[in-house]
Design brief:
Aminopeptidase, alpha+beta, 7 strands, 7-stranded mixed β-sheet, 10 helices, 247 residues
């Protein structure tokens, strides 16, 4: 019972934080420069700058199936995440460059994937708001729902694996392996979004979203027009809708 209560309290606290969060799909040069500066600050503070890095922006940031997001707290950029929609016909993503055999095995089996990458959070903010990592990962959950994918990948440092197993019920795909690109060990995990979603939304309400928020985040069709300047989270509305449906 204590664990249930603590999870409920934690979820409520993050819903309260989410009330002051805005997401922005990064499209213009000025915003990309801000993302690059944040990445550098975050990676340098954690001593995880890629060995061969010459810029904090990459060609894959501009791939047609990549979505770079900025997370704004009280209108200040505090974190960022890139989400890739990976399909058998379009295999570009960060994880495939690190663990190509494992990623291609999924794709050769006809699966579709979400690959979150380039997570970066302002170290000054993390010290005051450590739970911001959950809200930064939120677009990857939304992408899995929007694109109805089979797996969400996590290429991470081994020390973070317990978090992804606990929160997302992730399976280990590749054990800890030394990588040339980064000069330290990474492991590859994968979660099953269709199976995990009901329990995840019940435990962590802040991950929930309405369909129109997901469209604003990921729709690039001609009918969608220009990307919105900011996107307000809809977790509270989604949870209220679900409660009414149950009642």
């Amino acid at each position: 019972m204590d664990q249930i209560l603590s999870e409920g309290t934690f979820s409520q606290k993050l819903l309260n934080v989410l009330d002051h969060i805005e997401y922005r799909r990064i499209e213009d040069q000025e915003d990309f420069e801000a993302i690059a500066a944040l990445r550098y600050k975050a990676y340098k503070a954690r001593d995880v700058l890629p060995v061969s890095a010459v810029s904090m922006l990459e060609e894959v940031d501009f791939d047609r199936q990549a979505y770079v997001f900025g997370v704004y707290y009280y209108e200040e950029l505090i974190s960022t995440l890139r989400v890739h929609h990976v399909t058998p016909d379009h295999r570009v993503c960060q994880s495939s460059g690190i663990f190509p055999e494992a990623v291609n095995a999924f794709l050769d089996a006809g699966m579709t994937l979400i690959d979150p990458a380039r997570f970066a959070a302002d170290p000054d903010v993390v010290s005051e708001l450590p739970s911001i990592s959950y809200l930064t990962l939120r677009p990857s959950i939304m992408a899995a729902i929007y694109f109805d994918t089979d797996r969400v990948l996590q290429h991470i440092r081994p020390a973070h694996a317990a978090f992804y197993r606990r929160v997302f019920n992730a399976d280990t795909v590749v054990p800890p392996t030394m990588t040339e690109t980064y000069g330290f060990e990474l492991t590859l995990l994968a979660s099953r979004p269709r199976e995990v979603r009901p329990k995840l939304m019940k435990r962590y309400a802040f991950f929930d979203s309405e369909s129109y928020e997901r469209r604003l985040m990921f729709d690039r069709s001609p009918m969608a027009g220009m990307a919105p300047l900011t996107i307000l989270p809809t977790a509270r509305f989604a949870q209220a809708t679900e409660r009414r449906a149950v009642a």
